[in-house]
Amino acid sequence: MTRSKLHKRSLAVHAGTRRSQYGEMAEAMFMTQGFVYEDAAQAEARFQKVGDDEFIYARYGNPTNRMFEDRIAALEGTEDAFATTSGMAAVNGALMSVCRSGSHIVAARALFGSNLYLLDVLQRFGVEVTLVDGTDLDQWRAAVRDGTTAVFFESVSNPTLEVIDIAAVSDIAHAHGAMVMVDNVFATPVFSRAVEQGADVVIYSTTKHIDGAGRALGGVICGSKQYVREVAEPYVKHSGGAISPFNAWLMLTGLTTMELRVRSMADSAAAIAGALSGHPKLSKLIYPGLADHPQHDLAMAQMGSGGTMLALEIVGGKDEAFKVLDRLELVLISNNLGDAKSIITHPATTTHQRLSEEERARLGISPGLVRLSVGLEHPDDLIADLTQALE
Q: What values do phi and psi take at 80, rounded to 5?
């Protein structure tokens, strides 16, 4: 059956599979840094032009990595993909490969702390960066201009869960010839329709929902074959950011169960949001699946789900937030997300601690805000744990 006829759930199990002469059922893990040529002429020919199923060096490509890249590209609806050592290696590769001194990037202000740091690094090398409020389309219109290289944003922001209108921002960017780069981690490939909505490049930290078990780092850049192979890949492979075959193999196994896991997590997140909404110890509960979320209608149209993440603002600020975190018995304190285990984080003192107090306030990251990544535990148990900690 052709790729276009299969559901994502089937693609996540079968797309991109390569079998050796042994006909193995599970995807093979090729733990090799180099490849042998039949003769010197073959080596010369391969360095001049690498075929679709030919490899030179593990930093350039590997059969296991290629299976993962083909599979995630099939899921995302892009022509190609390149897997990287981490999510931030993917963001770095996507942006750095198109930028040079004098380039102009327009980015949403509400970003993961490391994404903001990378934008600072770009500015040190002469790249002009304009930050906008991502949900304000007028600010995008005012900032994007002819000659803008790319726009960059998280489709759902970390940690305050703002939802960016991918289609509208893409229309603005494309009218000026700018590329649209979307960090799509919170949306996940399960709920993503980013390419259909106008994104040119879709970036994931595969460390999160794709692995789903807290085992390994990884990232991936998805886009057109021309962009991935002629722009992103040369930068990433020469700067050393290619994924390990072992980690790529773990990501492949993660993909097979990803849809089941993510949909279950999202159902639980919705149940938790409904149960805790209006709790007297919470000054705010942010969940795109709730009707009171400012971009609820957009989230439903864009993703069809509220996702697996919540943000809770606890009355009493940092001290009370810490007390709640310390009282939790089932939910774990960590700074990862998308894991089978539920995880809670205090962004102001962890993921966004390098920002000034004024910058955090502007982003809505208050001292009492915590980010909750909902796992695969029974939602009733999670609700009970969160409730006892709050009370």
A: -160, 175
Residue at token pair 């409904």:
274
Nearest Cα neighbor of 241 from 266, 210, 267, 217 is 217
Percent helix, strand and coil across the chain, each rounded to 5?
A: 40, 15, 45
Please tell me what DSSP assigns to residue 278.
Answer: T
Kindly state whether residues 211 and 301 are assigned to the same domain. Answer: no
Q: Is the pTM of this model over 0.90?
A: yes
Q: Which of 254, 280, 311 is the last residue of a domain?
A: 254
Q: Taking CA 23 as the corner, what is the angle to CA 20 and CA 26, rounded to the nearest 5 degrees?
A: 90
Per the structure, the count of domains in the chain is 2
Write down which residue in 220, 237, 254 finishes a domain.
254
> Which CATH number covers residue 355?
3.90.1150.10
Residues of the chain with pLDDT under 70: 1-4
Q: Could you list the residue range(s) of the whole structural domain that residue 299 is in?
A: 258-390
Over residues 138-195, the pLDDT tens digits come to 999 999 999 999 999 999 999 999 999 999 999 999 999 999 999 999 999 999 999 9
Q: Helices marked H in 242-364 — which ranges?
A: 245-276, 296-302, 317-327, 357-363
Contacts 24+ apart (CB under 8 A), 164-169: 164/108, 164/134, 164/135, 165/135, 165/137, 165/295, 165/298, 165/302, 166/194, 166/197, 166/198, 166/199, 166/302, 167/197, 167/198, 167/302, 168/137, 168/140, 169/134, 169/137, 169/140, 169/198
* Phi, psi of 334, deg, nearest 5: -160, 170
